[in-house]
Amino acid sequence: MENSEGVKIESTVVTEEPLISALDIALFVVIITVAYFWYFKRDKQSSSSEKKPYTIQPSSLSSIEQTSNSPFIKKLKSTGRSLVVFYGSQTGTAEEFAGRIAKEGARYKMKGMVADPEECDMADLVEMKEIQKSLAIFCIATYGEGDPTDNAMDFYEWLQNGDADLEGLNYAVFGLGNKTYEHYNEIAIYIDQRLEELGATRVHEIGLGDDDANIEDDFVSWKEKLWESVCSHYGIEETGEESNIRQYKLVDCSEVLPERIFSGEISRLKSYENQRFPFDVKNPYLSKIAVNRELHKSGDRSCMHIEFDIDGSKMRYDTGDHVAVYPKNSSELVDKIGELLNADLDAVFSLLNTDEESSKKHPFPCPCTYRTALTYYLDITSNPRTHIMKELIEYASDPKDQEKLKLMASSTPEGKKEFHEWILRDNRNIVHILEDLPSVKPDLDHLCELLPRLQCRYYSISSSPKVYPKSIHITAVLVNYTTPTNRVNKGVATNLLAQLIPTNDELPQPTIPIYIRRSQFRLPPKSQTPIIMIGPGTGLAPFRGFIQERDYARKEGREIGEMVLYFGCRKKDEDFIYENELQEYVANGTSTKLHLAFSRDQPEKKYVTHLLEQNADELWNIIGEKSGHLYVCGDARSMAKDVHSIIVKVVMEKGQMTNSQALNYVKKMEQQKRYSADVWS
């Protein structure tokens, strides 16, 4: 007997509606959509896991040095730490010193961490007193004309403008400076005094490191006495445990896809292929070399005039600025390290910080090959510091090599003498050490952890943007010299630049990463203000830009003031650079006078300082009677100091002042930016 309802339904479907209703279609679409997303999401996750058998992801500098949202105080408390070491670093040395102090803290039962003040709210220092036996140490470099480093600027300004109550904060300060500069360790001294003014307790006297002498020795000596003061202050004792614990662990990245591997970029992966404005220290511009020509007329030395093409980059510079050039190590030295350590330089690896709380996850962009790390990221040509000697001991199989390393790593008078003679005097780098101590075979990943970062090189810009808005010019001497061990050491940047010769055909032009660093070395605001420029050798560089700019103003019909240039070199027919240009500027009236000193063109050597003494009346007329500006560029160690002494003497004699009054007069000139120096040691 048939179901009448079923028959009715069947009849209805067949006779009154389509075979598939709208509702059926809607339900079908929903089912298919859900199935589609479920299937492909699962497939994507599966394929993703298949493609990522590694644990380290490449990242930009923002993740390499990622700032945690957690305040440093919270980190200290949550991880049971009592020691924090802040660093103000421009070249990496202060950061390296900070890391060594934090590492040694374990020997005194003080678990430490390193912190970048730029990534911290330094107002949290008031909470340090809440942590038992806490200590804040500051490794602070003074940069430029007595300025804080970029990453310490905010902290410096906070100390200047704030009035926080830092009672209960225990601290110590180590400064990094250079005695050839007038403002020797000025920032570290200020921070040390200001912390005390705000109520903090100085646990150990300030240490002042002199990079012109032996800053490593200064640091080690201060550090030893620091721990003595720490033990006395807190009533603790050294545990005696060695702190040769690795900060980074090796991660094999052999299966990382090639497009995810760093190949020399400073921060962002593929940044040289996809350039993005603005360009700075973390994001340099890959500039073409437009011109590279020799300036010396004869002799065995070389001085290059190089022009970087910045057309289309949106980069802007001012006369007197510096340009930073990112170099790379020679393939010869890199290959030598691979050969000495029997290592595969093309293996892909990463170094991951063992401290999960650290904001610095990697010591340099990772993952990359060992060849890339040694070529672009690590300094393999400078003299290694004593802590590297200490870390190499365990890798020496020959007892003699082991004892030599132990001696140089020690702080005994004998050890310091050996380190000074064998490393510093003989100018050995890590390659030379591995060659001369053949039983020392460190793991290459550990060596990469120990070596400092390769730093960019700064050059005074020798052009004016008014005349050359689309290019940046530099004047650079090729650095090559023979060491006491009869090895030839080569300047990393200048030897690379010497190889980058532009071609006249359709081949791609050579390139190099650069960025512009602002300077306070500026022409007077008014073009009619008279100026004196003192720049022997490549110290002429910024003044070439100054003269170009004044010449541009003259051609526009503006009044320009006197321009007196003092230039010196060895021989007129050998290294008188830009001779024709300078003579032309005198001829057309842009430059008023050109005082030249050729030190070796006569029996008795003659330098620009001799000419300055002879022209005391002219000097005083411009800087005293006409309130002109005076500029010095070049060697800080002797020339700049001698010039300063001569200026003080001229002010005394021609201005009829006492020595004290003359010193104050020159000091006021500096404060008014009427006496400016762009010097190096």
From TrEMBL:
Pfam families: FAD_binding_1 (PF00667), Flavodoxin_1 (PF00258), NAD_binding_1 (PF00175)
Documented EC number(s): 1.6.2.4
Gene Ontology cellular component annotations, sorted alphabetically: cytosol; endoplasmic reticulum membrane
Subcellular location: Endoplasmic reticulum membrane
Keyword Phosphoprotein: no
Topology relative to the membrane: Single-pass membrane protein
Binding site for FMN: 89-94, 141-144, 176-185, 211
Main location: endoplasmic reticulum
Residues in Flavodoxin-like domain copies: 83-227
Transmembrane segments: 20-39
Residues that coordinate or bind NADP(+): R301, T538, S599, R600, K605, K606, Y607, V608, T609, D642
UniProt cross-references to HAMAP family, sorted A to Z: NCPR (MF_03212)
Family according to the record: Belongs to the NADPH--cytochrome P450 reductase family.
Main function: This enzyme is required for electron transfer from NADP to cytochrome P450 in microsomes. It can also provide electron transfer to heme oxygenase and cytochrome B5.
Record's protein name: NADPH--cytochrome P450 reductase
Protein source organism: Rhopalosiphum padi
Lineage summary: Eukaryota, Metazoa, Ecdysozoa, Arthropoda, Hexapoda
